[in-house]
Amino acid sequence: MGLHQSIHPPRDKRSSYVLPWLINQAGSLVYLMTIQRMPLSIAVPAANSLAFAFTAITAAVTGSEEPLDIVAVLGVILIVAGTFLCCMDIV
What we know:
By secondary structure, this protein is mainly α. The protein has a domain at 39-91. 76% of the residues lie in helices and 0% in strands. The chain contains three helices and no strands. α1 (11-37) runs antiparallel to α2 (40-62) and α2 (40-62) runs antiparallel to α3 (70-88). The chain crosses the membrane at residues 18-35, 42-64, 70-90. One of its GO terms (cellular component) is membrane. Belongs to the TMEM234 family. It is found in: Membrane. Keywords: Membrane, Transmembrane, Transmembrane helix.
């Protein structure tokens, strides 16, 4: 590396990682709060299944993936509905 070259990526490259990182951190906080308040037998499967739904939605919204087609939307709806039904059992 030359004297004037930086090991850091340009600002526009770094800023493209901020939103996904913030979403990831928020998800981690929600996961920890859920585990503290709900039985592990419900919290862990719910968090793991919803991670797929949130990943698909976030990827489509941020433009890192193609927009969701009808099959993907149906899959997200089924995941959320199944998680809801599992959580209704303990309420």
